[in-house]
Amino acid sequence: MVSSDELLNILADGKFYSGEQLGARMGISRSAVWKHVRALARRGIEIHAVSGKGYRLAEPIELLDEDLLRRAMAPATRECIPVLEIHDRTASTNQVLLEEGGRLVSGHVCLAESQSAGRGRRGRPWHSPFGRNLYCSMGWCFPETPPGLPALGLAVGVGVARALQSLGVAEVRLKWPNDVQWRDRKLAGILVEMSGESHGPCRVVVGVGLNIHMPSVSSTAIDQPWVDLATVLGAGISRNKACARLLDHLVDVLRIFQAHGFAPFVARWRGLDALSGKAVTLDSGGRSLRGVALGIDDQGALLIRHAGGMRRCVAGEVSIRKDDDAAG
What we know:
30% of the residues lie in helices and 26% in strands. It is an alpha+beta fold. The chain folds into three domains: 4-57, Arc Repressor Mutant, subunit A (Orthogonal Bundle), CATH 1.10.10.10; 66-271, BirA Bifunctional Protein, domain 2 (2-Layer Sandwich), CATH 3.30.930.10; 279-320, SH3 type barrels (Roll). The chain has a seven-stranded mixed beta sheet. A five-stranded antiparallel beta sheet has the order 13-12-11-10-14, with no helix packed on it. Helix 1 packs across helix 3 and helix 4 (66-72) crosses helix 10 (239-260). The longest helix is centred in the last third of the chain and has 22 residues, at 239-260. The relative contact order is 0.11. The model has no long low-confidence stretch (mean pLDDT 90).
């Protein structure tokens, strides 16, 4: 049976195709082509229909491809990824792996072209337009709980930053606890979910959402400053290349963390800290704390100097106070 994905694959290059051409290639009628065009539109994929020219995507889309990804990965990464699944659409790549439960193996990767219920921290929605960004999750099984496990998300942030730097992105910064920024705008987010005993074996799912070609129509629902790789590096960035570099660095982080915990990442994280020395407000548990961020301690907690002294913060949402001087 012909699917709408077959039409999408033809249109992915951004060129015009007449209904007759599409019907001939897909082996269906022109009216059936139109039904598939409407089906793609319902998935949020913008298609231009022009009389006398035919159909084309509003912008070309580079679909994720397992063969391309595996060829672009470092050899050591390929050996550590036994399962790489790519979904056209799923609720959440993290949820797919969490549902594996005890069957989850280290290096199981789940990617999606779109998500219907992508999640950020604290259940916030992660906007996931089709074929534009990266929605990536990797499962990992630690035979023993590594030291500093609660700080794994910060270590992953270091890996994401290094992946972006390898693609040519300068000025990458990390905003505690899970945002990757470029010039104070969010470029990527991290969500780590885990299960297991406090001591002993545990399983983690590391989710990363990376903006690559965020369409303006989708960005209206985002409630914070954001940026995408197309803006930073130019429109020619490859989703498959970006994904391969991301997987390279995620594997590297998880292997190091399994052996040594958070300690090898502390100095690297501090070197990328977007908040250190700035006046901030931390919201946690319905309360607000105003002070100056002084970086993280060796366990990944945020240190804030405030009127009453020093506070060690392990959870919360931080915002920079634009109206205050950091020394105040």
